[in-house]
Amino acid sequence: MNFLASLGSLTLGSRLKRLSDTLFNEVNIIYEKTGLTIQAGYFPIFYLLYKEGAVSVSDCASATGVSHPAVSKMARKMIEEGWIEKKPSPKDERTQLLTLSDQAKHALPKLIPIWDEIKRSLDSMLADTEPDNLLNQLLNLEQLNEKKPLSQRVLNNLADPYLSGDIKIINWDPQYATSFKELNKEWLDYYFLNLQEEWDKESLDNPGGYYLSRGGTIFFGLCGGAPVGTCALARVTDDLYEISKVGVTPAAQSRGIGRRLVVAALNEARRLGATQVFLESNRKLVNAQKLYRKLGFCEVPHPNGKSKYRRSDIYMTVTL
C-alpha cells in the first residue's frame, strides 16, 4: 500500500485528485492513439452541446456544476482550437450561445464509440472493486489501473471488442432470457432468412419451460457482461441429451466462443449422467460441422428417418 493510501480518509481529497488526473491522462492517451486532438477536460461541455445543441455559458455552468468563470475560460480554449463556436440567441441577441463547430460534428462519429467503450471499461473496473467502502474502492481502482491502464483496456477493446480473454461462459441466468431469444433470431435470420418453426417459437418464447423444467439448461457466452452467444442443452431421457440453439453473434465469431459453449454443454451432460448427446445441423454450416467433428460428434442416420426441423439435414451423436 502506498503512503497516501495508508493514511486513509485523511488524504481522500489528494487521492481523488490523483485519480482524476490519472483518468484524464488515460483518456488523452486514447484520443492521441486514435488520431484525435481534443482534450479530455473538454468532455463535459462538448457532450452537453452534443446533447442539447446550443447552450449559454450560464446554463452550461449550471448543468455541469462548474463555475461560470471556469466554463468561460474553457469555452475560449475550445473556440481557439475550433471545437465550438459562439452565436447570438435567437430569443435575445445580447445572449451568446455555445454550439459545436463543424469540426466537432465531423469528429462525433469517431468520438461516440470511444466514449461508449470508456464507459464500459470503467464500469467493468468498478465492478471489480469492493462495494460499500469508498476508500477500498479507490484503492482497488488505482490498483486495477496500474495493472492494466484504462487507455490500454479501451484501445484493445476498440480494436477487437471480442478478445477471448474477455469471454465468460455462464449457466442459465433469467436476466438474459430476452438475449437468448434475440441471439437465436439473429442467427436464424443470418443463416436461414429468419426461418422460424413451431419448435423455435416454443423454445425461444419459454426457455425455462422448454429446457430448464425438463432437466436441461442454457449457456451464455458473455463479453464484457453482454451476451454474444448461446447454447441449449435439452434432456430427452436420463441417458440422452440434445444440444441445440448454438449461435454466436456474427461480430464475435471466430473467437472460439461456440466451441467453449458446446464444451460447457457436453461437460454438463456428462455431469448429469448422460451417455450420449446428439445434435441436428445443416451441411452449409461448414465451420460448425468441423467444430462438432473435432469434439467427437459423428454423423449417423436420423433415428426417425428425417428431422422435425426443415432446416436440418444432418444428425450427429457423441458418446460420453
Automatic annotation (TrEMBL):
The keyword Transferase applies. GO terms for molecular function: acyltransferase activity, transferring groups other than amino-acyl groups; DNA-binding transcription factor activity. The keyword Acyltransferase applies. Residues 167-320 form the N-acetyltransferase domain. Keywords: Acyltransferase, Transferase. It comes from Kiloniella spongiae. This is N-acetyltransferase domain-containing protein. InterPro entries: Acyl_CoA_acyltransferase (IPR016181), ArsR-like_HTH (IPR011991), Bact_Acetyltransf (IPR050832), GNAT_dom (IPR000182), HTH_MarR-typ (IPR000835), WH-like_DNA-bd_sf (IPR036388), WH_DNA-bd_sf (IPR036390). Pfam families: Acetyltransf_1 (PF00583), MarR_2 (PF12802).
